[in-house]
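Preliminary data (for renewal application), alpha-D-glucopyranose complex.
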Amino acid sequence: MIKKYVFGTPVETEAVVQVIPVTEKTISRFEFQNNQFIYQMTEKTKVYGLGEANRGINKRGYRYVSFCSDEPSHTEEKESLYGAHNFLVIDDENPFGVFIDNPGKVTFDLGYEEINQLVITPKYMDMYIYLIEGNTPLDIIRQFRKMIGKSYIPPKWAFGFGQCRWSYENSGRVDDVIRNYEEHQMLISSVYLDIDYMQDYKDFTINEERFPDFKDYVSKVRKKGIRLVPIIDAGVKIEEGYHVYEEGVKNRFFVKDINGEDYITAVWPGYTHFPDFLNSKARAWFGEKYRFLLDLGIEGFWNDMNEPAIFYSKNMVERLKKRIKESDIEHDDQVLMDDIRWKLTGVANNSEDYQSMYHDMNGERINHDKVHNLYGYHMSRAAAEAFEKLVPDKKILMFSRSSYIGMHRYCGIWMGDNCSWWSHILLNLKMLPSLNMCGFMYIGADVGGFGCNATEDLVMRWMALGVFTPLFRNHSAFGTRNQECYQFTDTAAFKNIIDVRYRLMPYIYDVYLKSVENDDMMYSPLAFVYPEDEIASGIEDQLLLGEDIMIAPVYLQNAIGRYVYLPENMTFVKFERDGKTVCESMRKGVHFVKIARDEVPLFIRENHQVKIVRQSVITDASLREKIMDCSICYREEDFEYLQ
Ligand code: GLC
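Predicted structure:
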């Protein structure tokens, strides 16, 4: 049962697709005091949800702020990451769900100030709130997912393994990557192009020197079974003669300042304007621009910097200049320097800028700060709506960095700029079910870690988790150690791990489709499946994948294995080198299982079986392109069954 409440004059976010009448009464379940929604938890209450957020699957005990942020350092104290997913499941005697459909900043204090108090504080009081009553967390989630509409389904090839780096800056580097994967007989379905493929970081341009004859190049790579997937950034470079800039200015399609002038911020290309994705005409215009790359044979995109990320703004620079000019250096050095230091450290992604930008939401001027969390969502929506018109018969891969609930219908997300830290393998795992609760199904992290230098064992262990995530992409930042699978010593081990992904592909794809179709979880916390089992309900480093598999990755350096808790009898399966699988029946309970660095572990539930492709098929050289392309049609004899 769903109740809808209205506060103030909400912005229509289109997060919800089901028509639900507004309930007249004052909000139930919560106490409403001083513009805060307060809920008294018992000691046993668990709190799930919030999608792409820091910390645990049970989110209780910390404070989270929904405000899409370009936050490259996901340390434990961070309250905001790239997405804003305001859905919670409060699981106690009478569980219920709450969705705060408010695209401004919303703070969720889940027992932080006071251990048993859950307090929701929206910055702006214009919103819809939905309360969902149900018998179990899953029942509540299913109702919520139904309410927000079906999740995005990417093309099948998007389930293959992808290699990315900031940056493969010319076709020679891309060739190099492909050749190395080929030489090591590792399968790969996509190579990603980061910002350097563009001319001076201008969206919808190609740097012809670095990528001559781009169209032919795309098709040459495609013939090998590999897709190139370029990045698109939110900011449009300010440059006379650049058509996107000129059209945007002429048609008033950019975000404005208070005086109606195009707001100027700096991102990768230097000074830029932000397209006003909240305006339907601007959205249609920007979406249409993707045609340029579709016409060149591109079939996938990643939308970036769309929180939107701001390095600094023209306003900020002007204010600082003025301050320096006006200061009496003799007397005011300290004040001035403190001011500059403060400004410089807080200059990027500055709240002053967000509060100074304005959208034209189809005739109504609205301050950016009130709708901040919609920006990335509507950028991706612009593209997805254009794809429907431009290539109606084709599925296009797309995922975005920033997101809000509703965007799950248009594309997937990646989990942003993580680091090559062991703790981030675990964070990757924990985000999976929380994202599913909020409708995001095509998800994955930068495997191997984006920032910092990776080590061979970390990438290997992370890959052994990545084989289970829909988006399986190794990506790393400029200036970090190379972490493509062929860069390390034990390349045969990496080959084996990637093979496991392709062997599991039919299972993973099937679970994906079913989860979308049935508004179901692809990854479930153990607590959802074994609610009566007290131990299972507290476990946060194991997940169920679909109905048959439990995953339990190793996320500690130098570990020779790990402890697992089996809530029922299961078969422990290890994918070893050379395509060997070893199965062992295990009784319900706690076990220490040995898992070598080069092995992929999984557990199969009692009386369940999993269909996997035979290793001999995966390594058949004559099928290589079709397997990478994911267009292969397996015959029954190509499979074996694990149980
Ligand atoms: C951002 C993205 C990252 C990308 C980089 C350069 O940090 O999150 O994935 O590599 O920009 O474009």
